[in-house]
Amino acid sequence: MRTVIRLSLLTARGGIAGSTLVLPVVAFALTTTLLLVVLAGTLSFFRWQDEYSGLYQTLAAIAVALLVVPLLALGGSAARLSARRRDDKLSTLRLLGATPATVNAMTVLESSVLALGGAVIGVLGYLLLTPLVGLIHFRGEALGASALWLSPLLIVAVVLAVVLLAIVSAAIGLRRVNISPLGVRTRQNPPKVAVLRIIIGAVFLLGVYLAMSNIGAFGSVAAIALVMLLGFGGVIAMLNLMGPAILGMLAQRQWRRAQTPVKLLASRQILESPKAAWRQVSGVAMTSFMAVFCGVGLSIVGDAESSGASGQDAFLISDTRTGVIITLVISFIMVACSIGVNQASQILDRAEILVSLDRLGAPRQVIEAARSRAVMSPLRIVSLGSALIAAVLVFPLTALSVFMNPVTILLVLACLFGGILLVWLSLKATAPVMSKTLSSAERV
């Protein structure tokens, strides 16, 4: 164990090692904070025991399904931040004689330390945010901070879950390092596009659509809520499964038809790691998916308000709108965090290739344009595709007039535009990181 610790400390030294360590910590902290806030808000609804409590709890469960899976995906991607630099480092150690056990232990140690540090910071963020979240009104009164305090045991469980997620996510990438360290170090055998992922995802989506089309057959409200929870949460997980494969297939087509250096470099960047390319745009894909649900929800709320509801019914309508807005706000916070961290990490991961292109004479405008195209080109496809999938799944549960309602259309378009704008701003914000990397005297 002492050898593992010494090797980890030794290999952590480097020109930009500090940045590669800070980025995962930030991602884990944000993931933990949002997970705890969402969990606390959901559990606060279960303290109510009346005729309306079941409906509130069902709506909360749907919100959890729409938010927790993307948050876990963000935590998983945090473990893979700077993955290439770590894989290069570990493959070099394997070539120098390090055993697979040593490499595995180093990965577990590094991932655990970073995830634990980020999770602890995330707990502090949750403690700071709780009084503010407690000011939100439901059922005519503020929730109150006291209703949002989680038990210490549950907080520890969330922290341990984040650490475990980090270890598992990081360990998945070790197979190639242990089997073919030379191939990893020399960047041979790029990841293949797994068509099976698309087939599995398509079959699952069809199953969920059929379940939504016959939702009344499940009988009780609890059974229907469980089906919707598993169905919508599973679809979001399937999007993360299918996304890299779809981007890889599209990039292969663009690579064959590339007529300019920018298109060629952009398609090659996606093919180099479809999973990394998916992480750049997955946040917007998730938000586009949720935007359809939120738009439909606001449209239904608007129709209900026009009917002149009063008493608890009026509170329910108002609270549904509040829940929709909260879901959208959390999703956009998640998108902003995911995009910023992943963009900076992608530059640091590809520093060696970027510097090599610069030293070989490639104009920096071309390098920057290729980086932008590698993100913006798939972004348009996945954002529209995710919204379309959500619309197909929700359609059996509501009327066509709800989809054609201006509120639904405007909200979906606003979320699509907002997500694309966030990505574009992130590209501009990380341009100095690119310039600093290319201007570095160090041959990374």
From TrEMBL:
One of its GO terms (cellular component) is plasma membrane. The chain crosses the membrane at residues 21-46, 58-82, 103-129, 149-174, 194-212, 218-247, 281-302, 322-341, 381-403, 409-427. Keywords: Cell membrane, Membrane, Transmembrane, Transmembrane helix. Residues 71-178 form the ABC3 transporter permease C-terminal domain. Pfam families: FtsX (PF02687). It is a multi-pass membrane protein. InterPro entries: ABC3_permease_C. Its main location: membrane. This is Permease.
